[in-house]
Amino acid sequence: MAHPELNEETLTLYVLGELDGIDAAAVKEALLANPDARRTVEELQQTIGLLNDAYAAEDAPGLENGQRSAITMTVKHQVARRELKFWGRVVVYGGSLAAVALFTLISIPSLSRAREAARRASPQNTLKQAELIREMARSDESYGNEAIQDIERLQEEATAFSDDTQQELQKLKAEVASTVAHQQRERNSLAEKNTPESVRGLAKPAPAAEPVKQVAARMKSLGYTAEADDIAKDFRSVPTEQWHYAPQPAGEAYDRIQENAFTPVTQQPLSTFSIDVDTASYANVRRFIESGQRPSADAVRIEELINYFDYDYRYETSDENADPFTARVAMADCPWAPGHKLVRVGIAGKTQPVSERKPSNLVFLLDVSGSMNDANKLPLLKQGLQMLVKQLGENDRVSIVVYAGSSGLVLEPTRGDDQHAILDAIDRLAAGGSTNGGAGIELAYRTARQGFIKGGTNRVILATDGDFNVGVTTQNDLVNLIEREAKSGVFLTVLGFGMGNLKDGTMEQLSNKGNGTYAYIDSLKEARKVLVDELQANLVTIAKDVKIQVEFNPAHAESYRLIGYENRALAARDFNDDTKDAGEIGAGHRVTALYEIVPPGGVPQPGVDPLKYQTQPEPAPVDDAHGGELMTLKIRYKQPDGDTSKLLEFPIQDRSRPFAQADDDFRFAASVAAFGMLLRGSEYRGTATMQDVNNWAAGALGEDPHGYRVEFLDLVRKASAMY
Known about the structure:
By secondary structure, the protein is an alpha+beta fold. The chain is 39% helix and 17% strand.
């Protein structure tokens, strides 16, 4: 019997049982001598098994359509996280498993085999796949941007085909993009109506508990242990009717956030964390809500929502030798938890006039891979950089490094006042290819070191969707690479773009370890905010490795909870350890942190059960020697070019007031924190509602020169239709 060619198409048909008896027997015999093909068959069988488990939920009693959909999406997302490459879509007719048809190649487990398959592909088959993608986009709104990305992958692999084929692919992509845009406009229109009908479908119910457990168990049996554990964490023991499931878009990746709990002061009097001036989460959450979608909980970093806004923490000193920032602490009753207090720690960075800005050595590190081809990615990036360049002068130097399948220096160091050369280089940028971010990072830092300006601003500005898929690709390896490069004294700014494949977790970690900041650009207005209005703060570092440590007085605080900053937590001993990395503050930056405090004898919060073998400690007597201090705020920081930290210390008196009497900045920051807790479905949201958030913020707009606070009110109104 002649052995058939064991390509992916033949193996797929074999796994699906579509080959006749003779051909199936021939494939089975050929598999005995081909270990690679056997592994491919096993992977196909596992993938199909997972999908079968998802669709088996159709027979689960009491399961609503939305719940079935949520199970299917959960499995697809977890499979996608294992980097299985789907070259087709699952189409279900009549709700029956017997009618499941898998089109084209279901799974290509490695990039090399994907390329080999692409070489064997014909123009006719490629166009057929693109036409199928178009039809599925028309019939399945959830396909959306993923459909566009699927066609883009076909385009990347079709570069050897004729111009006619490529033009036809471009035409089909335009048709899909038009369909997706039309579907988005309809969703936006429904969300605007704010009626029960418009809300349906925006907040998807979670899968029932038993089907979820079955899917998780199946995934574990196949070796997907981490993914199965993630599913278990997502669905807690609460009544099913109270669950809401907001899956993150397929391809987007966010690091998990485990909210800070209330901590008894007698057990842990010290709270230690790194400051954070990032704002990416707010802009990203805004993108979700304005498109009629609920953001996933892990996309909501509450500290970044709060710090998106400016607050009037005045830095009032003319002493040139003074510390580069000052602290402002205030407290009031907690509006969502009667009996609790809310403490605001505000840090104001020293401003710097534009005329006094030191020379800059800027290296633009730009992702020009195929995934950056959308209108809200590379074209928006180019417009933003053009606005930034127009702020530069003769003392500045700009270099441009790009990376796709390979990396290169497309603009040698050029004076900032040579606007024509810089703008022309930006204008010529075009997207295409895969994403070799590691090579680009190394070249960018090497370029920055070669042009290093002592005493000036030396910074790499990385602009990407974070979808690194060639060379150094794992988050840990990329973070380690950035951490090594950061020792050169070159700081980092990360600008995130786009949707559908946004790797938010990777970009946040890169900025954290690169002595940098992370912003998400979703519009030209946001590009202007980050790259023009806040240019000084985002480029000029005035203090690095800034750490905060608060010691609470048990006489005035029974327990406390830091709101946000979960991935910035430090061990108490790290505060005095100058080798431990922390956040940076730029010129004019404002940083805000909120603590919710339970006073002695206050309303308790859920916690551990009372001890059986020990008596609970009695509340400590008020220590008059400390004059009624609630806490002591300590801050450590280093100069931008220094290695030794300096300690600042501020005793804080226990002087609360009614929430309504707090200043506008305090009340607005509290409203944003409550908004974040509601978006996350936080168990600590207390009595807060979207209407409360609206009322608190509307009464605390204060001075709002750019309209950001008014925009927040509009965002709350839109979110109210979904929560």
